Amino acid sequence: MSTTEPVITSYAAAPAKTVIVGGDTFAYRELGPAEKVPVVFFVHLAGTLDNWDPRIIDAVAKTRHVITFDQLGVGASSGRVPDTLEEAAADAHRFITKGLGYDTIDIFSFSMGGMIAQDLVVAHPELVRKLVLTGTGPRGGKDMDKVVGVTYWDIFRSVITRSDPKEFLFFNRDTAGKQAGKAFVERLKERTRDRDKPMSNASFSRQLKAIQRYGRSAPSDLSVITQPTLIANGDNDRMVPSVLSEDLHRRITGSELIIYPNSGHGGVFQYWEKFAPVAAKFLSN
What we know:
By secondary structure, the chain is of the alpha/beta class. The protein has one domain (about 10-285): 3-Layer(aba) Sandwich (Rossmann fold). The chain is built from ten helices and eight strands. The protein has helices at about 55-60, 85-100, 110-125, 145-160, 165-170, 175-185, 200-215, 245-250, 265-270, 270-285, and strands at about 15-20, 25-30, 40, 65-70, 105-110, 130-135, 230-235, 255-260. The protein has an eight-stranded mixed β-sheet, sandwiched between helices. Helix 3 (about 110-125) links the parallel strand 5 and strand 6 (about 130-135). Helix 1 (about 55-60) runs parallel beside helix 10 and helix 2 (about 85-100) packs across helix 3 (about 110-125). The two termini are about 20 Å apart.
């Protein structure tokens, strides 16, 4: 982004862009002040560019250059979803280094995006300066492969109640959780122009299988992650069990851990008023 252009700090107004890397087209958006080291956001299962909470994006973009992107096979990006998250991490590396030309980045990640981010850091530790891991867990984490059953059950429940699946997957079903879930879904609708293409059922299924493989594979050596790392989750995460956030905290030396009470997988979205300034401060220069 040119320094002569007006600085966009609202995700709802961030322009839709594409870049071609080796024949693959990556869709992305960027906002915030220009700088040499951006914050790249890695999204969750079935997530497109339209699935980021604007309250968190906008808080970070006040002081940092933010980039969100669609993995291959997702949204407006070309190709197909890879079979493994290692491959997704390799695709992200190509997008960041060859497509956008960055040799250093900070990362904000959520759920599956945090799994891909871990694989990226393990493979290319020199690329990442700071790391935020929310609602996620380590490769081979206990019960992570059960995400498939939990996901399909919650989708079924959402169909019966004519609700958005994220209201079940991300939030508790008590009064506070239901209110937070509906508010989150409404915030995702704030962008009304140039919205992303929806996720296909085939791509969704491939991502789920990749997460299942990740959960059933041998653990990664997370001792290579020496970057400042912030880990956050709710205390009742049914998709990626909350104990796995504690596992990450134990295995990543010097990391910070925040567990929000009475909240689920989307704890950072339920408590966005508390978490957004914490994340923005952690990522600030």
